[in-house]
Amino acid sequence: MSASAIGGSANGSVDGGGPAQAGGPARADARRNRERILHAARELVREPGELKLNAVAKACGIGQGTLYRHFPTREGLLAEVYRREVDDLVTAAPSLLAAHPPLTALAAWFDRVAAYARVKRDVFAAVEAATWRDLAAHSLGPIGEAVELLLAAGRSAGTIRADAEAGDVIVLIGWLTRLNDAELDARGPRLLSILIDGLRASRP
Questions:
Q1: Is 200 helix (H, G, I), strand (E, B) or coil?
Q2: Residue 48 Ramachandran class (φ > 0 left, ψ -120 to 50 alpha, else beta)
Q3: What is the pLDDT of residue 11?
Q4: Is the pLDDT reported for residue 199 higher than 90?
């Protein structure tokens, strides 16, 4: 799923600039600012209390006007943080399969799922119910496709059990979002290791 452009200006520019944004250094600078904003928001949403846009701007070292041109609302910024996390998770699946055997690729992908679970938990706790329901509905398909890609490769290789289904895996990894940071650090790797063992094809 591609990350949506949230917070475009009235003239339709994603980065909120005028004609100077058409290309060149100004455009590149706008992209860098957008990335810095998303990175800072991803880190700050984990802290106690409500995420403040002025705190994000301060963490990025940019003016509040620049931040508002990219993301006029806190809700829009957090939604984009989550969408970016989903994008990264989904695109990791084919990359891992290109570099590793299917079962190893699935285990490495599960390591990324733990980081995704933290972001999902924190973002969903910080946005309105209607927003997180919409985000969840639109992310389920792409994540399911990534899981199925990994499972199908393992089934073809004979290393993942033939009856493994993407929906079952999504239900099981969904429990990670219910854990706090300490529990994720202590139990997350073990739980995912157990899941990998359960998906492993039985030896004849």
A1: strand
A2: beta
A3: 33
A4: yes
Hey, CA dihedral for 12, 64, 85, 175, is it positive or negative? negative
Is residue 203 very low, low, confident or very high in pLDDT (cuts 50, 70, 90)?
A: low
Provide DSSP, 13-80.
-TTS--GGGGSHHHHHHHHHHHHHHHHHHHHHTTSSS---HHHHHHHHT--HHHHHHH-SSHHHHHHH
Quick: pLDDT tens for 39-55.
Answer: 999 999 988 888 899 99
Domains of the chain, start order:
19-70 (1.10.10), 74-199 (1.10.357.10)
Q: Any residues with CB less than 8 A from the CB of 2 and at least 6 apart, and which?
A: 87
